[in-house]
Amino acid sequence: MTAQDVQTFFDSVVPYALQRGDIAGSVIVVVKDGQPLFAQGYGYADVANGKPVVADQTLFRPGSISKTFAWTAVMQLVGAGKIDLDKDVNSYLDFTIPEKFGKPITMRDLMTHTAGFEESVGDEFMKSTDQLFPYGDYVKKHLPARIFPPGKLVAYSNYGATLAGYIVERVSGQPFNEYVAEHIFKPLGMDHSTFEQPLPAPLAANMSVGYHSASDKKTIPFEAIEVGPAGSLSATGADMAHFMIAQLGGGQYNGATMLSPAMIELMHSPQSTMAPGLNGFDLGFYQENRNGQRIIGHAGDTAAFHSDLHLLLDQHVGVFMSFNSPGKQAEVGRLRTALFRSFLDRYYPYAPPHEETVANPKPDAARVAGAYEVTRRIESTFSVLQALTQSSVIAQPDGTIKIEALKDLSGTPKTWREVGPLVYREVGGQAHTKFITDKDGRIQYWISDDFLPVELFQPVHGLRSIGMLKSLGVLFLVTLVLTVVIWFGGWVVRRRFHAPLVMTRGQRRLRLASRLGAVLLLVMVCSWLLMISSGIEASNHTIGLLLTALYILGVLTALGAIAMLIHAVLRVLRGPGGWLARLGEVFIGLSALYGLWAICAYGLANFNYTF
């Protein structure tokens, strides 16, 4: 690994990859043995003006890599004896996180993302920087529900990192942004880095423009990130090299001390794993062990910028890469993975040990097959999005399995073979996936080295599973559409031939309420799908009004479904019409029941605005 060879390696692939992926620009930095080895900008920081990316001038937004600076600030205060990793975080706050599960949340839980918070997305991104408000106000306003016991299950949390940043403010007596500038950026000589929003004038001129793709004329404005400690950093690639050198060099950079060697060693020590032998968390960094190397790192994503930071601890090598657009079909995600794995294969070639497939894998393949949802999820507000994003484990006839969430670089789900009890290895690869059971042998979750260890996949059963949602959902929608079409068509035919229905006034009114209920169910489904598919940002100032309208619609729809159910029962028992009409009403009644269940199960009328 020499500077010339590394440059040849990246120069041979990155320009082509950017062009193929329709990505505007990127910066890639490599450090080795306490020195910058390689730093290069590729493509454009400003396409319209032909401004190239320059490694020591162009600022990128590393997204959640910002968290590693927040965790470094925490460790500085741990080293100073001002924060105890295992003390109830309430002792550092001016508000109280309510008691639950009989165990307090600690800073160690926050740093390993095992505090048990549900996902919180409200106000994470604002429309403009002048709408941003203090971190303390944010953590009080958006305190998420606790859905898991602390220390038990990993569920990545921007809220948890922002809470840690607020604790840094409380303990140090300095605003978080100022604390990091004084205690991290200054000693490391990171003169082109800041958490401030908007950017200070001297830095703003060198901020890369954000793009959807290089060919897209519509740019992405500078993103106003409310959860600053979790994601608002702006920095050059060269500055990120300084940070990596300090992390790899016992906390030292160019004679200055960021952290003591003891604190660095503690920060880089394994803290939690959800499956023995698989990647887990150190303090703030997650493990990325691969090719026989001990690797920790962090990724970061905003709408425009997509970044990775990797530290090969035993080799004293660090790699940082950032891109200013996702590109066509989110190509940047595959590109980042391919680049780093190719880098490892070139400089640290590895032949994984041979592992035999178990003698009879079919029973376990059938056992693990099914639908799974991630632990990083919203439960207490509306969970319909979670239902639509489940992934499946599919048993193959030969006893192998396919996992929809784990795909190769072409986007095809990988195949996995069982090499131990509920332990699977990637066919043709080195990664492992493990299914963890409870004391009664029931599957609790799966986790894989082929996926970042930031969340788990838990099984979903019954009506909530994606398979049942698809099959019953289609039947539900077909029944509703046919009900509305036949209702309207019947009205047209009866009007044309002057043949009114023979019903009492009460029967007519109940039938009308039933059919309007079917219309409302269709409107409710379409409204939620439209909201989800339109990609409305959680920071959108209209989201509260939209939720209120949808919740009110949910209440009205529930009343309409009840009318559908009552009408169906009465029609089947003693209403006019033959067996075909009665059979149709049975389907309508079952659709009403399914609609009522969905409204309750997915929180479509719960008037909860904590998200």
What does this entry look like structurally?
With 611 residues, the chain is α+β, with helices and mostly antiparallel strands. 40% of the residues lie in helices and 18% in strands. The protein has 17 helices and 24 strands. The strands form six sheets. An eight-stranded antiparallel beta sheet has the order 23-22-21-20-19-18-17-24. Strands 3-2-1-16-15-14-13 form a seven-stranded antiparallel beta sheet, with helices on both faces. Strand 19 and strand 20 form a beta hairpin. Helix 15 (505-533) runs antiparallel to helix 16. The two termini are 47 Å apart.
What is the 3D form? Answer: globular
The total of helices stands at 17
In round numbers, the mean pLDDT is 93
Helix content: 40-55%
Poorly predicted segments: none
Strand order of the largest sheet: 23-22-21-20-19-18-17-24
* Span between termini: 47 Å
In what range is the share of β-strand residues? 15-25%
Major sheet size, sense and barrel closure: 8 strands, antiparallel
Structural class: alpha+beta
Query: Could you give the count of β-strands?
Result: 24
Radius of gyration: 28 Å
Oligomerization status of the protein chains? single chain
